[in-house]
Every structure is written in structure tokens, then in C-alpha cells.
Design brief:
Length: about 525
């Protein structure tokens, strides 16, 4: 049912988009979905309060309550904030906006609604993107979009409403990433990659940090993991940073709709030159930094204390990201980072020396080679790095996992890691750490390697170099049987080919062709 709603919404929204760029239209759609959600959850809480105020058996019962008194109580903001529901002023409530959907000033009204919601909810200050009054949509299209979003019903249960919204929101982010192509990848990491990072790191508690958080997907998956394992979201503190102003707002909205407390810094800013959390030491870091960015360097970064293992090359930020995250780990913290495959073996411009220093310092815990075609926006092969400030298990070893053949195609151009594969990878790492189960090397899939052997390979961390080939049958008789079968099949095919060749020659001879 929910999948049908999502697909119908996307098909209709995409049709309404007309000639507007997906990057622009994205904010219009997601902003309206947010507005509909906060209005629906407010209305649901209001209806609940109305019932409770008039129920003599309820703690909220109002004695000698008349209509005026009831109306006054329903306007008390504290009743809404105590259950983490946004206060929505009357002018911003969805029924008011829908009633005005066909008016020529609907864009201005939506902007005003967002402004008053921000004013009433300090957590949203400066977050909501007020661009509806100047949106370049054909006449009447914005009203149609309001009518479309009106079809989303978030129900009366705040928890269920938040889940529905989260799924619709995540679906739209993914669809927009696909529509935007390369640009979309700036704010969207495919869910299966995020799930893998979260499953391996298992962030149950403490401070969780993403220094290039995009739309906040890492945090959302962390929330789901915590809830699935019986924990409470309040057990973790969320810290993030994002340089793109519109994406920074998307992240804040994505977290706010789920009731997640967060600190994304005072403003959108570059992580390297305007670090918003300089004193943070996180228990878990999860990140998908942009691959191989070449324009990251600034003169102020010369001699930065983050470059403990060597100065990163000015033409590629990969090793700047790795060292930034190591710098921000707590003494027992762990990090999981998505990077281009080349980062595991590159020796250009000091990268080999930095990697060697990191390996010898024993801060590299696991590397995983991923299948191709996981991303919407790039065909560059990717990998996962897992770092540990101080290893609690297997010091002096690195675990290599080759998952390149484990992807499943979900469309002609898109692959994913299934939940079963993610569980297998997480279980492999947990067993290797001694947390659960027994670990054993598996040829072609995983191997634990001592630092001395890695040094012999020039500190290259590409899993395929270490895990070897998959085990094959070594039974001589089984091999002989297979070889005999293949030889017989080849003989049959060659004989059939000769027959077809003779038949073709015969037919051409009838037509007068000579050989």
C-alpha cells in the first residue's frame, strides 16, 4: 500500500515538474511534504487532547469546561511540545493552505506559513526553505502540487505518521538523486551502503558524527538500528556538518520530522576550513565524503593538527577526510567511511606514505571492496574503510572483505546489497572482533592479515590482493568428469557447426555461388 502511494506520488510530481530542474523542484516537494506532516501530527494531537479534556477518567480532564475554555487549552503550546509535536499556528495549518491552493498568491502563503512555523519552533530557525513565492512553475502547477501532497495521510498515531513520512521522504530523496544524476549524489547515499556502515559499527550509544552529512541518511539509519536492537534514540547524540546550504536544510528537516535531536553546527560550512565541531570526539563516525575532490585545499590548512599521518595532497581530499575523522574519534571510537576504490592503493602525492603511516599505527581495522553500480551518480568503484582509534580486538591485523560479486541488480543500471549480504558482512566483522561467533578466513571473500604482510605489499589495502580466489573442487575425479563432459559438449557443438556449414554451402550453391 505504502509503495503504491510513493510511486503514485512520484509519477504525479514528476509530471507536474514540467521543465523545472529536479534540483529546484526537490525542495518544493519535500518542503510541502514536511508542512503536511507537521500539520497532520498537530491536528492528531489536537484531536487527542479534545477527547482527553472532556473524559472524566482522564488525567487531562477539565472540570467545568465550556467551549471557550476548551479552545484556550487547545492553544497551549506545551501540550504539543511535551510529546515532540511541532506547534503549528492557525495560518500555517494544511486545511487553510489547501483551501487557498487555487489562489494566485499560494506561493506567498506557503512561505508565510513556513515563516511562522519557524518562529514558533526554535529548533527550525533558519532551516525551512522559503522559495515558493518565487518558484518558476507554470500557472496553477503549485496549487496542483498542494492538492497532490494532500493525498498523503499520516494518520492519528504520531509514531506511525513519522514512519510513513520517513519512508516517503527517503523514497523522494532517492528518486531525486536518480533524476539529478551526478549532482544528486551530493546529498544521497544509497540505503544499502548506509545500512552496511551502520550494521558494522553498531552505534548503540554515545556521540555519532558525520562531517559531510548530506540529507542526514546516516543518522536516520542509525536511529532505525538503535530501535531495532531495543535501544532508545536518546542514548545517542547526533552531530553533523554540511557545506551545501540547501542540503544542510534538508538534513535538518529530515531529522526534525523524526523527532531526532541534532547539532548540525551554526550554519552550513566547509568541514576543512570552517569546522563546526572542533572539540568533538565522537564514539562513532559514519560518512560518505565526495570522491576524489580536487578543489578542497586552502592555505590556512597548512600544518593543520588533523594531518597527523602526513600532509594530504592538495589535489585530492580522500586522505584529508580519513585523517579528519581519525582526529575526531574518541579514544575508543570507530569510523566507517565510503571512498573510491583508488584510495586503498594510490601512491600519488604522498597518499602511499600516509596510508603506510596509518597502517603501521594500527588504526585501520577493516576494508571492504563493494560491488559496482551501487551509486546513482557515479560508476567509480567504491569501498568501505573502518578505522579504530585503539583496537580492542585483533591488534596488528586488518580484516579484508571482498564483496564485489555480492551485489544484486534492482534495475538495469542500479545494484544494491541485500539485507542478507549486509548481515553476512556484519557477522563476519563481529566474529573477527570476537564479539559473536567464530571467525575463519574464507578464500575469495575474507581474510585477516598481519601488518607485516601488508607492508610486503607496499601497504596496499585492496581486499582482492589478500583474500585469494574462491575455493574450488580439488577432487581429481570430479575435475576429470567435468573436463570430459566439457570436451564431449565441445565436440558435439563442433560437429553441429560443420553440419550447418555444409548446409549453408549447399544452399548458396543452389543460388549459383561458387566456392
Amino acid at each position: 500500500m505504502l509503495d503504491d502511494i510513493k510511486k503514485t506520488l512520484w509519477a504525479t510530481a514528476d509530471k507536474l515538474r514540467a521543465n523545472m530542474d529536479a534540483a529546484e523542484y526537490k525542495h518544493l516537494v519535500l518542503g510541502l511534504i514536511f508542512l503536511k506532516y507537521v500539520s497532520d501530527t498537530f491536528a492528531a494531537r489536537r484531536a487527542e487532547l479534545t477527547t482527553r479534556f472532556t473524559d472524566e477518567a482522564d488525567d487531562y480532564f477539565l472540570h467545568e469546561c465550556d467551549a471557550e475554555m476548551l479552545a484556550d487549552e487547545l492553544e497551549d503550546r506545551d501540550y504539543y511540545r511535551e510529546v515532540n509535536v511541532f506547534w503549528v499556528p492557525e495560518a500555517a495549518r494544511w486545511d487553510q493552505l489547501r483551501a487557498a491552493a487555487k489562489q494566485t498568491d499560494i506561493g506567498k502563503r506557503i512561505d508565510e506559513a513556513l515563516t511562522v512555523i519557524e518562529q514558533e519552533n526554535p529548533k527550525l530557525k533558519g532551516i525551512l526553505d522559503k522559495r515558493y513565492g518565487r518558484a518558476q512553475l507554470p500557472d496553477g502547477k503549485l496549487g496542483e502540487l498542494v492538492d497532490l501532497v494532500s493525498t498523503i495521510g499520516f494518520g492519528d498515531d504520531p509514531g506511525a505518521a513519522r514512519d510513513v513520512l520517513g519512508q516517503v521522504y527517503e523514497y523522494f530523496l532517492g528518486q531525486f538523486a536518480s533524476a539529478e544524476g551526478k549532482k544528486g549524489g551530493q546529498f544521497y547515499t544509497p540505503a544499502s551502503i548506509v545500512k552496511t556502515l551502520v550494521a558494522v559499527l553498531a552505534p548503540h550509544h554515545g556521540k555519532v558524527y558525520d562531517p559531510c552529512c548530506g540529507s542526514g541518511g546516516m543518522f536516520v539509519q542509525s536511529e532505525k538500528f538503535i530501535e531495532a536492537h531495543g535501544g532508545k534514540l536518546g542514548d545517542v547524540s547526533i552531530y553533523g556538518q554540511e557545506s551545501n546550504p540547501t542540503t544542510w536544510r534538508l538534513a535538518a528537516m529530515n531529522l526534525a520530522i523524526r523527532g531526532i535531536d541534532f547539532n548540525l553546527g551554526k550554519e552550513p560550512a566547509d568541514t576543512f576550513t570552517r569546522n563546526q565541531h572542533p572539540d568533538l570526539r565522537a564514539d562513532f563516525i559514519l560518512a560518505n565524503p565526495p570522491f576524489n575532490i580536487s578543489d578542497w585545499w586552502h592555505g590556512s590548512l597548512e600544518g593543520d593538527p588533523r594531518w597527523r599521518y602526513g600532509d594530504p595532497p592538495q589535489g585530492n581530499a580522500n586522505y584529508a577526510w580519513l585523517q579528519h575523522m581519525l582526529h575526531h574519534l574518541a579514544p575508543t571510537g570507530r569510523a566507517g567511511i565510503v571512498l573510491a576504490n583508488g584510495s586503498m592503493g594510490s601512491s600519488q602525492n604522498n597518499e602511499g606514505q600516509i596510508r603506510a603511516a596509518m597502517v603501521e599505527a594500527d588504526v585501520v581495522e577493516v576494508t571492504i571492496a563493494l560491488p559496482g553500480q551501487l551509486f546513482f551518480n557515479t560508476q567509480i568503484p567504491a569501498c568501505l574503510w573502518f578505522l579504530a582509534k585503539k583496537k580492542t580486538a585483533r591488534p596488528g591485523e586488518v580484516l579484508f572483505i571482498d564483496a564485489r560479486k555480492l551485489g544484486r541488480m534492482i534495475s538495469r543500471v542500479q545494484a544494491e546489497l541485500t539485507d542478507e549480504i549486509i548481515d553476512r558482512i556484519a557477522a563476519t566483522v563481529a566474529a573477527w572482533r570476537g564479539e559473536e561467533g567464530e571467525y575463519a578466513d574464507q578464500p575469495g571473500y575474507c581474510r585477516s592479515v598481519a601488518l607485516a604482510e601488508i607492508a610486503e605489499h607496499g601497504h596496499v589495502l585492496t581486499p582482492g590482493r589478500y583474500v585469494g580466489a574462491e575455493a574450488v573442487e580439488d577432487d581429481d575425479e570430479a575435475f576429470a568428469d567435468k573436463m570430459r563432459s566439457l570436451t564431449e559438449k565441445l565436440g558435439e557443438q563442433m560437429a553441429r557447426g560443420a553440419e550447418l556449414d555444409a548446409l549453408i554451402r549447399q544452399k548458396l550453391g543452389v543460388l549459383g555461388y561458387a566456392f
